[in-house]
Amino acid sequence: MHDQQQSQQQSQSEQGAPQEPEAPDVRPLDGFTVGVTAARRAQELGTLLERRGAQVQHAPALRIVPLPDDTELLAVTQDLVDSAPDVVVATTAIGFRGWIEAAEGWGLGEALLGRLAGVELLARGPKVRGAIRAAGLTEKWSPASESMAEVLDRLLEEGVSGRRIALQLHGEPLPGFVEALRAGGAEVVGVPVYRWMPPEDIGPVDRLLDALTGGGLDAVTFTSAPAAASLLRRAEERGIREEVLAALRHEVLTVCVGPVTALPLQALDIPTLQPERFRLGPLVQVLCRELPGRVESLPVAGHRVEIRGHAVVVNGALRPVPPAGMALLRALARRPGWVVSRADLLRALPGAGRDEHAVETAMARLRVALGAPKLIQTVVKRGYRLSLDPHADTDKYGGE
Question: Which of 145, 136, 101 is nearest to 277 (CA)?
């Protein structure tokens, strides 16, 4: 009886004992910094990224300038109302809506909608299709790829000789598209609904470029081809184009919302990724898959360690690390298990000068941030090493 009571007391004691808090789940983008160059829907994209753990650096690479009072747009609209085109190509939802709204402001809305209802109306993608239908119109055709190249192929296959084709421009001219139609014998009328312009405040773009070339970004996103072209144009103005290209080609993951957006980057041999569905949500999913997939899990001193952009995951727990500490850790991780001299680590520290004491100070802070001091071993008179254990079972978390 005494043994039974003792067993019950022991069981109750174990149940009442404080439990080690479980490490919170690490979100897919925890520890990574993502650049957002979008002007439109930037807040939506930033929110999607932050919910998944990313730090977001927002730098709109351009701004959209609507032209509701533009004399050129007014003249083109009046011309199309007076002399109906055979085909109208709508390229963007915001542009098509802006055109209709501008026409209504001039008292030409009803006349323009009447004209558009009687022509072959082509929509570049589902967003444009939605804008067309919201205006009470119906498109004749829309490509599955959202590609202007597919629109061009269809028109040329139909034959464009003698046809009048109105093309709603999307901020930048489409010289290849227009030239091909004119070479086929078409009359092409450009409809300049809005224009892309450089941002009024260039500071965020410059900071993004500095982060690109300085290792402060893990990925950068583009939602329009003009934004990509604008960012590279600014890099050229600052004389850092080659450094930016090198970062985009070899270090920073470049994700575009679709193949059209990627064209100016791919033309410069920049590898890009894009989702199968050309939307912000799938774009974020690409980042959630690709960025963690690039991180190697290292067995170090009985722990599992993942080195991310500005943080480290130790045994499934996120550990934010100061920039100096990350610089040291990356230098050690390039040769895990090997001793790295203080002199080499000093060179890895940004702005450290020649004082090796800076290495000791940064190393002490790094160990505190990691929460596991034995991850990094001091090798007397030689330097430091990451205590790599290649035979460890990384599915089991060890302790100090």
Answer: 145
CB 369 within 8 A of CB 319: yes
Q: Which two tokens stand for residue 245?
A: 């290209």
Residue whose token pair is 């290292």: 298
Nearest to 39 by CA among 225, 167, 191: 225
Distance CA 316, CA 148 (A): 45
SS3 130: helix
Compute CA 321 distance to the chain's CA centroid, rounded to the nearest angstrom: 23
Tell me the pLDDT tens digit for each residue of 209-225: 999 998 899 999 998 88
Name the token pair of 290.
């690709």
Radius of gyration for the chain, computed over Cα atoms and rounded to the nearest angstrom: 29
Residue (of 117, 153, 146) closest to 132 by Cα position: 117
The bridge status of strand 87-90 relative to strand 63-66 is: unpaired
Strands 120-123 and 63-66: unpaired
Q: For residue 278, which amino acid is it?
A: F
Residue that has been written with the tokens 């802070």 in this structure? 365
Strands (E) located in the chain: 33-36, 55-58, 63-66, 87-90, 120-123, 164-168, 187-191, 194-197, 219-222, 253-256, 297-300, 303-307, 311-314, 317-320, 339-341, 376-379, 383-386
CA angle, corner 254, sides to 253 and 256, nearest 5?
A: 145
| 68-106 tens-digit pLDDT | 567 889 999 999 999 999 999 999 888 899 899 999 999
Q: Please report the domains of the chain, with CATH numbers, ordered by start residue.
A: 33-62+199-293 (3.40.50.10090), 65-196 (3.40.50.10090), 297-386 (1.10.10.10)
Model-level pTM? 0.70
User: Which among 249, 62, 82 has a CA at the least distance from the CA of 172?
Assistant: 62
Question: Which has the closest alpha carbon to 332: 302, 352, 312?
Answer: 312
Structure tokens given for 130: 């939605």
